[in-house]
User: Fold this.
Amino acid sequence: MNNNSLDNIGQANSGSVGNAVLECCGLTKVFAEGRENLNVLNGIDLLVMPSERVAIVGTSGSGKTTLLQLLAGLDLPSSGEVVLCGQTLTNVSEQQQGELRNRHLGFVYQFHHLLPEFTALENVAMPLLLRAEVTVKEARIRAQALLGTVGLSERMSHKPAELSGGERQRVAIARALVGNPDLVLMDEPTGNLDPHTAGRIHELMDSLSKKLTTSFIVVTHDMDFAGQMDRALRLEDGCLVAA
Ligand SMILES: Nc1ncnc2c1ncn2[C@@H]1O[C@H](COP(=O)(O)OP(=O)(O)OP(=O)(O)O)[C@@H](O)[C@H]1O
Ligand SMILES: [Mg+2]
Assistant:
């Protein structure tokens, strides 16, 4: 891992040290299915502090992706609320939610969600290009630095369809990190990676959490990876318990 390239990514997050990055309490999610209801989340309480790295494990279908979507404000809870960097997500307009996400949150989707018509470099630079104060040149430099850090210097000009599954996964990770978010939510980020490359991603997370106080919530089936986090929680019967 080239830690020097991290220095090019940008400045430390501001204002969140000493305050919770994420707080949620009493979070529930019920999916209506015909006459039946599917209770996926039954009252989730979670507090994440700056620099904290939290793993969430659980069987397939236990609600891990649903939980991450609620924490990011990408879906509405049935009850309960999510507070991201001091702002209650359900109390703000959709536009404000988008701005909050762009400033404070990185999200690695389970199935990447890269934009197919753009190159790896453009995909990674995209969150920065949405910020008025960042120039195109600066966005490209920061995106290049991060792609180098995840080992993709040689593949930057390729579109997602021309990349392997693990390469796409790393592009998605670089895109989530490029804006120096306070919190990164990752949905099985190392599922397609060999142990060596997964280890590099872990080192990158470790370095960002130490240098920039970035916090991580990582859904994973990889118990080794989960064991390297500060805390590991299991989603079971719609509740979070110590893993
Ligand atoms: N939009 C939806 N409408 C109805 N049911 C849904 C919806 N989204 C998810 N579910 C159901 O909610 C449950 C939890 O789904 P979720 O995707 O959160 O599981 P997961 O823990 O991420 O599983 P995996 O490890 O397979 O990714 C599953 O039973 C799923 O079928
Ligand atoms: Mg999932």
